[in-house]
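Running co-folding for flavin-adenine dinucleotide.
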Amino acid sequence: MNFEFSDEQNLLREQAAGFLADKCPPGAVRAVLEGDASFDAELFKGIADMGWTAATIPEKHGGLGLSYLELCVIAEELGRVVAPVPFSSSVYLATEALLLAGSDAQRQAWLPKLATGAAIGTFALTESAGQASPDRLATSCDNGSLTGSKLPVADGDTADFAVVVAKCDSGDGASLCLVPLQADGVKRTAVATLDPTRSHARIDFDHAAAEPLGADGEGWELTRRILDRAAVLFAWEQVGGANAALEQAKEYAMGRYAFGRPIAGFQAIKHKLANMFVKNTLARSNCYYGAWALSTDASELPLAAATARVSAIQAYYFASKENIQTHGGMGFTWEFDCQFHYRRAKLLSVNIGSERTWQDRLISAVEAGQAA
Amino acid sequence: MDFSDTPEEAAFRQEARAWLTANVPSMEDLEGLDEVQRAKLWQMRKYEDGWACIRWPREYGGRGASAMEQVIWNQEESSFRTPASVFAIGQGMAAPTMMAWATEEQKRRYLPPLASGEHVWCQLFSEPAGGSDLAALRTRAEKDGDEWVVNGQKIWTSGAHFSDYAILVVRTDPEVPKHKGLTYFFVDMKSPGIETKPIRQISGESNFNEVYFTDVRIPDDHRLGAVGQGWQVAITTLMNERLAIGGGGGLGFRQVFELAQRLTIDGRPAIEDRSVRARLADWYAQESGLRFAGYRAMSALSRGEIPGPENSIGKYVGASKTQDMASFAIDLLEMSGVVSDPELSSHSGIFQYAFMGAPGLRIAGGTDEIMLNILAERVLGMPQDVRVDKGIPFSQVPTGAS
Ligand SMILES: Cc1cc2nc3c(=O)[nH]c(=O)nc-3n(C[C@H](O)[C@H](O)[C@H](O)COP(=O)(O)OP(=O)(O)OC[C@H]3O[C@@H](n4cnc5c(N)ncnc54)[C@H](O)[C@@H]3O)c2cc1C
Ligand SMILES: Cc1cc2nc3c(=O)[nH]c(=O)nc-3n(C[C@H](O)[C@H](O)[C@H](O)COP(=O)(O)OP(=O)(O)OC[C@H]3O[C@@H](n4cnc5c(N)ncnc54)[C@H](O)[C@@H]3O)c2cc1C
C-alpha cells in the first residue's frame, strides 16, 4: 500500500500550479464573470497545450495515456483557481463517456480532437427541476433523430458535441446518444446561472442527427458509471477550491484588525478556520481513496466516489460561505474574490447530483458491499 | 398567557384586515414605479388613513396603538403582498433614537415625515476600520462655533443613495478611550460635502454605499446626547436594530415547503422523504420560535422596557436559516437549481436570489460572531476576551496599518 502521490505526480502538481498562477490569476476568472465570453479561450488553449485534455486518452487516439492520478492532481489545481474553462465537461464527462461506451469509429472521430482541445464535448442529462431519472426523461431518439430539451447543460453553448441521455422503452429506460451541436435541429440558448464563470445553456433538439453511444437501454447504467468516475474528479476540484478558500480566509484574518488586534486571534475565527481545515482534510483523504479506485477501476469505485463526493461537497460549501463571513462586509462585495468560491461551490454541489443524491448512493454502495 | 385574541383585539384585527383588503396597492397602482416610489406610495396610503407606525404617538404621526395591536397589524399586513419597505432604518432605528434623545420640537418636526414615508433615513455608522469594532470609527468632527465640521469616510451605508437624512456617529476626541470620544448626530444627506458612491455586492446589485465627508457642516442642535456620549446613544439605535431587521430575508419556510411538495425524489413527492421532513421541521420550529419570541419582546416593550440584548437571537438564527433554506432548495432542484434566470427557474429564481443575499444577512447589523458574543457577554454575563484596546486613548490602539 502507498497512500501518497508519486514524485512525478507532485512535480506535475508544481508545474500545474505554476502554470495556473501565471495564466489563471483572479483577474482571468473575473473577466469571464463580468464579460460576455463563455470561457477563457486562451487559458483553455494553454491547458490543451500542456496536454491536460489529453491526459487519460490512450496514445492511439492522440492522448498521453496517463493514469487518473495525474488527472486528479490537475483537477485539484483547476479547482483551486476556480478555472473558467469547459475542462470538466469535456474531460471528466464527454471523454469518459466515449472511453466507456464509444465505438471505435466514435472514439477515432472525437478523442483526438478532445485531446488537442480542438473539440469540446459535454454531457446533457437534466431536463427539469428535481432529481433526474429515466421515467422523467422526455427527450427521445428514434432512428438517429433526437427531439427534446435539455436544461441546463454545462458548456452547452460552446461545446461541439454532447452526449445526451434520452429515454428508451427497453432495458434500463435510457439510451445515450452522441449529437454534434453545430447542426440542423439544434438550438442553443445561454442561460444565467449562479456561477457565470462556467457557462450553461438550454439546448432544444428538433429532429437533430444523433448516433447511439453504447447499447440501447443501457443508458442509465452507463450514466451511473460516468458520474461515478466524474464524481471523483469533481471532488478533487472541490477540495482544491475549499483549500483556496481557507487560505484566502486565513490571509485576510491575519491582516484585518478589530478591537486592537488581528481578527485571526479571536477564537470564533480560529475555530471557524480550524473547522474548514478539518472538513477539507477529511474530504481530501476521501479523495485519495477515490483517486485510487478510479485509477485502478476498483470494484469499490461507487462507494469511494460517493464518499469523496459527499465530503467534498460539504467541505467546499462550508469553506466558501465561511470565507465570506470571515471577510465581513468586504466578503460580500462584488470587488472581492470570495464570491468566486461561493458561486462555484454551489454549482459543483449540484452539478452531477446533489449531496442528498450522493448520500443515497453512498449508503446504497455500503449495502451492496454488505450483500456481496 | 393567552395566544388568542381578546374581543377588542379581534375587532382590531377585523378592522385592519378590512382596511388592508381595500387599500393594498394593486399591480396597476405600482406600474412604472421603482422600488423606492412603490414603498413611498404604500407608506403614504397607510399614513393618510392612520395605519403608519401605529405604535407611535399621534403627534409624531402614529396611531397611539398598543404593542399587541402592532403585533396584530404586522401579522395582517404580512399576509398581503405589499411593496418592500425602505423605511426599516428610519422608522425602526432612527425614530426610536430620536424619541429617546431628541428635543420635543425635533420629534414633532422629523418624525411625521418618517411615518408618512416622505423622508427616508440611513445609518452612517460603519467605517472601513470600524465594523464589528464600531467604537473604533475614525470620522472626525471638530467644533466650529455652533457647528461641527465633519471629515472622514463611512462604508456599507444601505440606501444612502436615496436617503434624505442619516443618523451618524463620529469621533470628537481621539485622546480618550474609544467609547468615550464618540458623539452622535443626525444629518441632512443633501449637506454640501457629502458624496455617496455605490458599492456592488456579490449579487451584482448595489444597495449599499461608501459615503465621504469633506468639511461637512452640521449644526450643534443636530447632536443627540452630550458630546462624548455617542456610544450610549448608538446602543439605543443598535438595540432597536435587533427588532427592526429581525431575522427575515425574503425567504420563508412556506416557500421551501411548497417546493418540496412539488418536486420528487426517487419517484415520490420530495415532501415524503424523511430527511426533507426533518429539515423542514427544524426550520418551522425556528421560525415559530422567532415569531413568538418577537411577540414576547413586544409584550416587554408594552411594559415600557427597551429591547434587550436577547433580541440578538432573531438576527442570528434568521440569517443562517435563510442561507440554509436557500441552499437546501437549490439542492432539491438538483442540477436545475443553478439556473438563476427568473424566467427559467422554479419560483422565479427566489432561491438563487436569496442564496446570493444570505451572506450579507449574516454580516449586516452585527455579524453572527458579534451576536454570539453579545449573547454570551451581555445576556449570560460571561467575561469578555482579554482586551488590548480598553482604557487606553483611542489614538494608541494598535491597528493593522501601524
Ligand atoms: C448588506 C449589508 C448592509 C449593511 N448596512 C449598513 C448600514 O446601513 N449602515 C451601517 O453603518 N453599516 C452597515 N453594514 C455594515 C455592518 O454592520 C458591518 O459590515 C458589520 O458590523 C461587520 O463589520 P466589518 O464588515 O468591518 O467586518 P469585521 O468587523 O472586519 O469582521 C470580520 C470578521 O471578524 C469577526 N470578528 C470581528 N470581531 C470579532 C470578535 N470580537 N470576536 C469574534 N469574531 C470577530 C467578524 O464576525 C467577521 O467574521 C452593512 C453590512 C452589510 C453586509
Ligand atoms: C452592527 C452592530 C450591532 C450591534 N448590536 C448590538 C445589540 O443589539 N445589542 C448590544 O447589546 N450590543 C450591540 N452591539 C455592540 C456589541 O455589544 C459590542 O459592544 C461591540 O460589538 C463591541 O464591543 P466593545 O468592546 O466596543 O464594547 P463593550 O466593551 O462591549 O462595551 C463598551 C461599553 O458600552 C457599554 N455597553 C455595551 N453594550 C451595552 C448595552 N447593551 N447597554 C448599555 N451599555 C452597553 C458597556 O458597558 C461598556 O461600558 C452591536 C455592535 C455592532 C457593530
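Result summary
Chain B touches chain A through 58 residues (CB under 8 Å).
Residues 274-302 of chain B form the longest helix (29 residues).
Job closed.
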